[in-house]
Amino acid sequence: MTLNCLKWLVFLVFLQLIAACKPSRPVDMIVVSLDTTRADRFAEIATSDPDWAPLWAESAHFAAAASPTPLTLPAHTSLFSAKNPNVTGVRNNGVRVPESLPLLADRLKARGYQTAAFVSAYPLDREFGLSRGFDVYDQATSADRGTTIEERPARATVPRAIDWLNQAGADPAFLFVHLFDAHAPYLPDGISEQADTAARYDGEIRAMGQALAPLFATLKARQRPFVLVVVGDHGEGLGDHGEYDHGLLLYDSTLLVPMLWWAPKMFAPGPRPGLPRLIDLTPTLLELAGAAPIEASEGISLLPALRGQDLAIPPAYAESYYGTQAYGTLPLRSLRDHDLKWIGTSALAEQELYDWSADPREQNNLVDADATQTANADRLQIAAFERPEPTALAGPDSEASRKLQSLGYVGAGSTATSGNQHPNELIQIHARLTALQELDRQTHLSEAVTEAEALVSAAPNLPHIRVVLADLQEQAGNSAAALQTWQVAVALRPDDAQSHFRLATLLLRLGQDEASIPHWQAVQALDPGRLVAYTNHAVALANLQRWEQAWTALQPALAKVSTDDGTLDAAALIAAQTHRPADAAAALLRLATLRPAHVDWLKIGRLQWLAGDAKNALASFERVPSSQGAKDVAEMGAAAALEQLGRTSDADARRQAVQTRNPRAHAAGLQWFSKQALQESATPD
Asked: Looking at the record, which segments are called Disordered (predicted)?
């Protein structure tokens, strides 16, 4: 080989090395989460259903993936943070994702991705914090179903996501689509409500595939490199082990979910070995994006497995604190070690050990099979409970609790301390409560009250059942019975902020202001962030004419709330009664931004005038519409403000004009804007 040829060859190799090192264009990333979707039911449908089967055939798919918890918000938080719930601290629906927790959308946005989420149900509402990092966070509202339940079907959510994708710019896109159809109640189109549960549940999975088919077609048509992940957040009991919904127990009916990766020309289609975990999704996508992994990530990248290489996936951990928070049971945890799966509590009693690959329905408990299996169970129990325990279990606030209960989460809102019962001991009661929660209250309210009373008799020491009964009694208009039930619930669980809140609310509504005050104070002590408790405490004091105490009680809410009209209404009233006209005017001005069609500029102007703020008072008086009968009284206020500003001749001219055209307004204005009014405003009661 000549020297020139050798130089040319070296140059070509150099160019190839440069090309290999040059970063390729980041791929679009789409994550579709199928809420409440079991791996076994999905796999059976996806291999034959006309909408799902093409995706299944073209995807790299695992037999199942492991969820760390059978609850929507905690599972999605783990999905997008690569950390288990005992690390994220999000162990219940309705709580806030810590702002310090790194999330996938944040990281991808920092890498130049345009980001959007289309969410189908309230458990993932933006108020809980998973919206961080998304340019667009489109969520269900009550208008989507014409009811108070904030959810929408896949056929309504997916077109919105497609529209966004079609309008996305040249930058790489990260799209998250959350579908809620498989969550109870199962009401797919074309299947009778009288059909059996399994048929209706399967119908919902098919409905999601039908809705997603246009998205799959859109991705192909765009001719941009992409990775689409279809994954469940948790499954559904469907009667297995006596559990009909999800959240209380940790069997694979609620923990194993589908996971498919569709990336044409990137991942060869076909099955992949191993059991990935939800916490492995974010590390995989971050590696594909060329981004650094999340600090202290518990998940790993699945890219080697997706590319057909061997990959050792660490054991899957899972937990449920749903029973702890709803019923006061022991926390439940689970840990896998290859084919063994342990489920249990911190107590030695009622440990369970299964060979989950050979016994997928978990029917044969191996704990006492022999000494080796007993030792395995003890070892896995220690490993499961070596993980950190929370110092406190956060629960949703009152409004979040109400909305979650409308979606069937019977324990939403409770923050019980741990008892010594195993969740299995309450599965029958829980099943009855689940069925009770699904009764149509408009047509079966009497039946629901009767069943709740029967449940109280069956389990008199479970506070949450009394919570359900009290709520039903209030709906039925039986306030006296509800009051008594709430009082017993508080006595059974004095550390539950939600029970104190509901009792105090009922007392306030019944005019028993004095009796409500200790319960508002209890809520403040147990849940300091629930600002409405401070407002309602102040309202109770105001109703008792204890104005200065009311003003003091209101301050924590007033300091943090700028958009709550109830707090601002209370502030305006109490400030005026305690001779704080400037504070009253400020509250009304904040209200003006919330209710622009109902602003009382005459009242705001008078308060500003009483506070000596003549310049702003004049501006407020002049904003009173000419069409209002109070316009001439406002003119008298403007005259008073002009006089404060030293413009006496202008003030006299305005008063004279009002006296000529409206003597009654002139007389009223003289009284409203007199020196005596100023003196009275500055004088304490």
From this structure: 646-670
